[in-house]
Amino acid sequence: MSGAPEGSAEAKYATGIAKSAQSAGNAGTARSAEVLILGGGIIGLSSAWEAAKRGFRVTVLEAEEFGGQASGAAAGMLAPFSENTESPDAFFRLCADSHARYPDWVRELEELTGQSAELCRSGSLNVALHEADFLSLRARLDWQSRYGAGFELLGASELRGLEPELTEQALGALYCPGESHVFAPKLVRALEEACRRAGVRLVAHAGCVTGLERVVGAGVVVRTAGAGSWLADRVVVCAGAWSGLVREWLPVDVPVHPIRGQICAYDGEGDRIRHMIFTSQAYWVGKNDGSVVCGASEDVAGFDRSVTEQGIGRLTRWSGRALPFLRDVSPSRGWAGLRPATLDGWPLIGYVPEAPELILACGHYRNGILLSPSTAEIVGDLLEGKSDGYGNAFGIERFSPAGTTRRGLG
Questions:
Q1: Domain coordinates in residue numbering, the chain
Q2: Which CATH superfamily is domain 9-71+186-256+344-399 in?
Q3: Which of 39, 93, 101, 303 gets the highest tally of CB atoms within 10 A of its CB?
Q4: SS3 for 284?
Q5: In whole angstroms, what is the distance from residue 308 CA to residue 336 CA?
Q6: Terminal CA-to-CA distance of the chain, rounded, Å?
Q7: pLDDT 10s digit of each residue in the chain, 410 long?
Q8: Is residue 261 within 8 Å of 282, Cβ to Cβ?
Q9: Which residues pair with 379 in a beta bridge?
Q10: Superfamily name and number for 121-180+258-341
Q11: Do domains 9-71+186-256+344-399 and 121-180+258-341 have the same CATH topology?
Q12: How far is CA 8 from CA 5, 12, 15, 402, in A?
């Protein structure tokens, strides 16, 4: 893949950007950074912090507010076993590895910033409301107990001993004692502060990307609607549900699309549940602020982040069925976030083969909070020219059949 034709207007523009950045540093409209991260959600901030700790100069461009999309809207559950119910594949191993990193990762973050992420090892209960659910839990126990300690398949009476407020219709549950959760908005704020302390330049309200061009021998030029043009040696795409929109300039399509997830919360009820509770229809988690968070109602609505009566209504109906004390209680608030989904549900983490200056770290769907430590570690390794440790299982090549022609960059 080559840059713009020599002598073209685009080539002259990019050359001017490069010369200006090299001679004037941060002056004018051209700004230079070794690593430019597109997107200031939890994946972008985590990757930026990791890159800065490894000695890279890092700038993060966020179209709106940092952590204002799916990251800030998330329930913050760290549940590698509850989210992976089929087999110990590469995605499960990535989730489990990230979960294992979380205690030390959060401890470092909190010691650096003085801010708490409210990491709580509550454990989880995957509740069976029907006999078919119970059978699937037995199958999960067979393989998941090999990868974690203390798993138990509980009967109805044992379950109510752990969660007395659960419906009497619950037949039992798979108990996963090691799973945990964080308070996502506080985690994002702590990461933002950690990035500042590590010397990362954070640029909010940069607007959308309006152009991206590889300049041979100079790096990559990124143009934005609200923050001018930027030159970098490497660009990492962490734009969440918006990552697919950069396909106009990338050498391959980025198959990421938005899934709207609606969540609600009941204030003052958090001490009435002791664990994260999962059913086939919804989940509930009690937070330190006294709320019970319930999610998530999902639908395809493009980039519409509005809260709907239908979406929240579905959650309130299931809340009343699973937790009778919520049957006549209305949620105190509801909100929505756009989850970045791929066609197979696995994230995209790896180089763009036709343009090794570009790294993808997007498409994390429901697991962006959980996967932040491991994704940041992989991004750091890729920036240093190392392998990802997963045999490129999360690379974009899995969506690019051999021989398919892709759009060039520039």
A1: 9-71+186-256+344-399, 121-180+258-341
A2: FAD/NAD(P)-binding domain (3.50.50.60)
A3: 39
A4: strand
A5: 9
A6: 9
A7: 233 333 333 333 344 434 433 333 333 344 446 999 999 999 999 999 999 999 999 999 999 999 877 676 788 999 999 988 888 999 999 999 999 999 999 999 999 999 999 999 999 999 999 888 888 899 999 999 999 889 999 999 999 999 999 999 999 999 999 999 999 999 999 999 999 999 999 999 999 999 999 887 788 999 999 999 999 999 999 999 999 888 888 777 899 999 999 999 999 988 999 999 999 899 999 999 999 999 988 999 999 999 999 999 999 999 999 999 999 999 999 999 999 999 999 999 999 988 889 999 999 999 999 999 999 999 999 999 998 889 999 999 998 765 333 333 44
A8: no
A9: none
A10: D-Amino Acid Oxidase, subunit A, domain 2 (3.30.9.10)
A11: no
A12: 6, 6, 11, 31
Residue 212: strand pairing partners:
222
269: exposed, middle or buried (C-beta count within 10 Å: 0-12, 13-18, 19+)?
buried
User: Beta partners for 77?
Assistant: 181
Nearest one of 7, 19, 144, 41 to 362, comparing CA atoms: 41
What tokens does 386 get?
């190392």
Specify whether the CB–CB gap between 254 and 248 falls below 8 A. Answer: no
Torsional sign, CA 80, 86, 92, 93: positive
CA–CA separation, 193 vs 189, rounded Å? 6
How many angstroms separate the CA atoms of 43 and 74, rounded? Answer: 13
Would you call 387 helix, strand, or coil by DSSP? Answer: coil
* Residue of 70, 53, 109 lying closest to 377 (CA atoms): 53
Alpha carbon distance 235, 229 (integer Å): 13
Q: Are 384 and 54 in contact (CB under 8 A)?
A: yes
213: region left, alpha or beta (phi > 0 left; psi from -120 to 50 alpha):
beta
Position 334, amino acid: G
In whole angstroms, give the CA distance from residue 260 to residue 314.
Answer: 14
Q: CA distances (Å), 261 to each of 146, 215, 336, 398, in order?
A: 32, 39, 5, 26
Q: Provide φ and ψ at 146, rounded to 5°.
A: -80, -10
